[in-house]
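Hi V.,

Quick status before I head out on leave. The structure for the redesign project is tokenized and pasted below; the design run finished overnight.
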């Protein structure tokens, strides 16, 4: 069974630019896990690149949400193509844009980008989990935990280690907008709750911690929907 990883664009290319050392280590970790028998579907986000394009376009000329979403989707495809090439022969020969696409391959790594307006790559990850009958998603971002409110705005924000979907959805709400930033987007959360999925939110650049998570060992992060 494939392990589903929602890889934030901030992991691939942060605002400060590519971290080549990290990318080499990330590639090595995933390939090591493949050699141990794992298979992966990596859904790659747009991150800061996406938001910079969206903000610039909207500043030049006001845009509807669908247009901004499509611009974001194109950025995920570009990031995903980079990641696919990074894994070389280990990866399926093209990026996947439709989570319902039938894929027949012996490749152990499949790379995907965004699908359509009105959602983020988190939602695409949930759809892949549904279609590949996975029960868990690893959400790799630039935060160690989800919080009960924005820690950048509220000093009283508390980290979350374990939370039910109904409580998490009260935090993120129900509305999506282009460039929306949340630990796991509202549309994805609604679908994940319906499918009884578990989502693990962890800092993607902490590779020893990620390795523990992939090997079903105790790790630092937020678990949504586990045993609740």
């Amino acid at each position: 069974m494939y392990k589903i990883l929602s890889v934030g664009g901030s992991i691939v290319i942060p605002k400060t630019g590519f971290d080549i050392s990290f990318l080499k280590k990330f590639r090595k970790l995933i390939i090591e896990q493949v050699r141990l028998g794992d298979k992966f579907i990596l859904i790659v986000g747009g991150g800061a690149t996406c938001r910079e394009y969206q903000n610039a376009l909207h500043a030049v000329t006001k845009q509807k949400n669908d247009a901004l979403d499509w611009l974001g989707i194109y950025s995920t495809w570009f990031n995903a193509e980079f990641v696919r090439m990074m894994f070389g022969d280990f990866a399926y020969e093209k990026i996947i844009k439709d989570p319902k696409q039938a894929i027949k391959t012996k490749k152990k790594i499949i790379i995907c980008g965004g699908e359509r307006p009105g959602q983020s790559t988190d939602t695409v990850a949930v759809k892949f989990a549904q279609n590949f009958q996975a029960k868990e998603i690893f959400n790799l971002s630039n935060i160690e935990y989800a919080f009960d409110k924005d820690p950048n705005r509220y000093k009283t924000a508390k980290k979350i280690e374990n939370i039910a979907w109904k409580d998490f959805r009260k935090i993120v709400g129900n509305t999506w907008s282009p460039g929306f930033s949340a630990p796991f987007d509202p549309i994805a959360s609604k679908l994940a709750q319906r499918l009884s999925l578990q989502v693990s939110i962890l800092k993607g650049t902490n590779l020893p911690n990620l390795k523990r998570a992939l090997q079903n060992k105790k790790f630092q992060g937020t678990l949504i929907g586990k045993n609740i």
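Above is the designed sequence. Strands lie at 2-7, 39-44, 109-112, 136-141, 146-147, 159-160, 162-163, 198-203, 222-224.

G. will cover questions while I'm gone.

Best,
W.
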